[in-house]
Amino acid sequence: MTKTGSKPPKDRSRGKIIFAGVLFALALMGLWARAYFVQVVKGPEYAKMANRQYWASETVSGKRGEIFDRNGLLLAKSIATPSVYVRPNEIKDVWTVSQRLGSILGMSPKSIAANMGPKKRFVWVARKVSDAQAEAIKAEMLPGVYLETENSRQYPQGHMAGQLLGFVNMDGNGIEGLEKSFNDLLMPSSTKYTVQKDAAGKRLSSLESGDRSSFNGQDLRLTLDSQVQLATEEALARSVIRAKGKSGMALVVEVPTGDILAWGHYPFFNPNAVKKIRGEWKNRMAVDIFEPGSTMKPIMVAAALQEKVCTPGKEYYCENGKWSVKGRRVKDTHKYENLTVSKIIRYSSNIGAAKIGLELGAAKLNRYMQELGFGRRTGLPLPGESAGLLNPVSQWKDVELANISFGQGLAVTMLQLADAYLCIANDGVRLPLRLLHAADTPVQGTRVFDSNVAGMVMAMMEEVVQEDGTGTQARIEGVRVAGKTGTAQKASPTGGYGGDYVASFVAIFPADKPRYLVCMMVDEPKAGHYGGVLVAPEVRNIGVQLLNSSGMLAEPVDAMQMAKVSPDRFSAPVKRTELISVDGEFMPDLQGATVREALEILVARGIVPSVKGQGIIVEKQKPLPGEKWPADNKCQLWLTGQPG
């Protein structure tokens, strides 16, 4: 039996539907709220994050400008070199990463780890590493470790003109030599640009190489001639070594233009391996000053001739080698009596020069020295160039005037000395010395001496070499050579003069039509101290090579003459062979080639060979033909006299 009055079960479906609808509405509202929060509130921030993932800002820099000699030979260039850096905030295991980097780079893991502070965002680990090290680091795929390409400076010709070129620091800024003087010109520019990346972080776009080159620094072309530079450096080295000197300098100038063809220092300095030793990289030609000694006499005589104080034939009594000026003794190396002005220059009489200077007077001599540039910088683009030392004329008493007349009591740079002799060689017109090649730029000078005065001084200097003067070891058969020796005591730090000397020689080739001016100096020689003995032979050697290479010698110097100096490296005609290949990794066959042909090939590869024997033809070579180019850039050539 069924009970009556019982209630039917309630239908809860509606409530469930409402509850579900409410939940759905709340969820939808939450989604809308989240969407609002993401798109509106956080939208700009997330957009930036997305841009950082797919777009990146990168800095692009060009290469530092290159430096060339007058003929286009590369003297300094920049190459791409990898550097290693880390982002410490991306590295979880600092010690493991430091150990792996240390083993590859040859560094202490502790020092690497010590630099990885947790708050640092960027840390250099090693700058300008080798390609092999960079590849090893890539293979490790270490988190937070990156490679950056930087430009590294290289000097393909090694030590050639090293002190003049100078060098750059790790950041590519010039800090010595021409690299410093022309840093603003050589320095590349840079810019930031945006690059797109894919999901893996790889670039989807980049600048074209042509666009990148627009950021490169400007190139520099010098007046140097690498062939002349090489010959000058070798001759200078022989002179310093033979004289057992401390150091030396040599300068070669083209007389008609004032172009500096060679700028040599010894000991040599290789800017590829910079050592913080002042004596190696110091540009002594511009910075160091020295008492010129007897090389000042022709300059003083030129002033006296210009002022008509004397004539070449006027005689002065030279006191039999000993004389006193206001209690200060002046000596000659020989006991001369009456000497003409020409013979005072020829025999380099201090007493005779002092008497001419005293007759000329301090004011007049000082005026000409000022006009020739003594006491101030030459104006060449060189950092730290010295102005020399020339006391005010008000301080020139008789003793000081006498000393200055034969080259003591003042100090000059070799550039100043060369500048003054260039004026005499150039018919009395002073030209500016030039280091930057400007073939089409007209050369303008200032007349200091009359043409006939310059001619008289040139004739006196010619007697120094061609007659029985102090420079006979600079003679070249068939060529008129003008020159002047210099031997000066060095001032002692404690006052007066000590036992050290500066030996020098200045020559002009040829004397009748000056083309080349050569100056060389050896500091503190121990195997003697006379410039005519220690320096003149190697200056002659440079002159022979210059005149041979320019075709100004009627006939090549014979073997006996060449043996008196050293192997003629440039006596062959200037003609590059087309039969010798320098491509690839193997040494070409240089046997049978002329010295000049061989040198052009080797120097272009950055190799300065050593040479044995006499002559102009390569007889043997090492490395042998077909062997790999030497990794240490060492090459030996043996010479013979004639082909076959």
From TrEMBL:
Q: Does the keyword Membrane apply?
A: yes
Tell me the Gene3D superfamilies matching this sequence: 1.10.150.770, 3.30.450.330, DD-peptidase/beta-lactamase superfamily, Penicillin-binding protein 2a (Domain 2)
Q: Which residues form the PASTA domain?
A: 581-641
**UniProt GO cellular component terms:** plasma membrane
Which molecular function term from Gene Ontology is one that the record holds? carboxypeptidase activity
> Is-annotated flag, keyword Cell cycle?
yes
- InterPro entries given for it? Beta-lactam/transpept (IPR050515), Beta-lactam/transpept-like (IPR012338), PASTA_dom (IPR005543), PBP_dimer (IPR005311), PBP_dimer_sf (IPR036138), PCN-bd_Tpept (IPR001460)
* Major site of localization recorded for this protein: membrane
Q: Which domain of life is it from?
A: Bacteria
Q: Which UniProt keywords apply?
A: Carboxypeptidase, Cell cycle, Cell division, Hydrolase, Membrane, Protease
Where, per UniProt, does this protein localize?
Answer: Membrane
Tell me the protein's name: Cell division protein FtsI (Penicillin-binding protein 3)
Organism per entry:
Desulfomicrobium apsheronum
